[in-house]
Design goal:
alpha+beta, 200 residues, binds 2-acetamido-2-deoxy-beta-D-glucopyranose, 2 domains
């Protein structure tokens, strides 16, 4: 083998390696620049997580017979909140489940929702359930609740959300709600509120 040929092959390998190295360096710089841009946007705008909270809940009617059939009429006004002064947010795939003692009473859904900066949007539901048969445990729980005059329902739900600042759009993240609402049997108003979602 003439040594010239080897050295030419060597030069070619050299060229390929150098090209790859330069591309890698450019890529690395691009990633760093993008990271810095995201960090700067984050520091400047300090986006806060959008969330959903219960604005108002009212148990309009509760029918319960000794066969263990539960029927309710409920008003549930939720609110999608965006506390950001500069970031626009959107919510999608909203889904909420109202349960009594792990038995589904109502399923509430909504497609998507845009919430401009520093504002909130209502998600108002009025739900009338069909008669729902309670199992033995739930019947006992309902009897106990009615004796106390306070009926608890569990609200669980989730939504996807993200914020947007100019061309910067965050990834979608899930926000979850899980809380217990207590209603006075006499007038249907809630005992206490303060239920909102947590994000991760
Ligand atoms: C955001 O809303 C609050 C109360 O509604 C208001 O006082 C504040 O000025 C608003 N901020 C901006 C930047 O619009
Ligand atoms: C509902 O009834 C409870 C007790 O029965 C009472 O403490 C509460 O103030 C009433 N709420 C309203 C809005 O009338």
């Amino acid at each position: 083998m003439p040594p010239r040929l080897i050295s030419q092959e060597g030069r070619q390998t050299h060229f390929v390696i150098w090209t790859l190295a330069v591309l890698c360096a450019i890529l690395t710089i691009a990633v760093i620049v993008a990271g810095i841009a995201v960090f700067v946007v984050y520091m400047v705008y300090q986006p806060k997580m959008p969330y959903i909270r219960v604005a108002y809940a009212h148990l309009d009617e509760l029918l319960y017979d000794q066969l263990g059939l539960l029927e309710i009429d409920i008003t549930l006004n939720l609110e999608a909140v965006n506390d950001n002064n500069k970031a626009h947010t959107s919510f999608s795939a909203l889904s909420f489940l109202l349960q009594f003692h792990d038995i589904d009473v109502a399923v509430l859904k909504s497609n998507s929702l845009e919430v401009p900066k520093n504002s909130s949007r209502p998600l108002n539901y009025h739900f009338h359930s069909s008669p729902i048969p309670l199992d033995q445990d739930a019947k006992e729980a309902m009897d106990k609740a009615l004796r106390r005059g306070i009926v608890p329902f569990d609200l669980r739900g989730h939504a996807k959300t993200r914020w947007k600042v100019g061309i910067f759009v965050s990834v979608r993240f899930w926000t979850h709600i899980s809380c217990r609402l207590h209603f006075f049997q006499t007038n249907g108003s809630t005992v206490e509120s303060g239920c909102s979602t947590t994000s991760h």
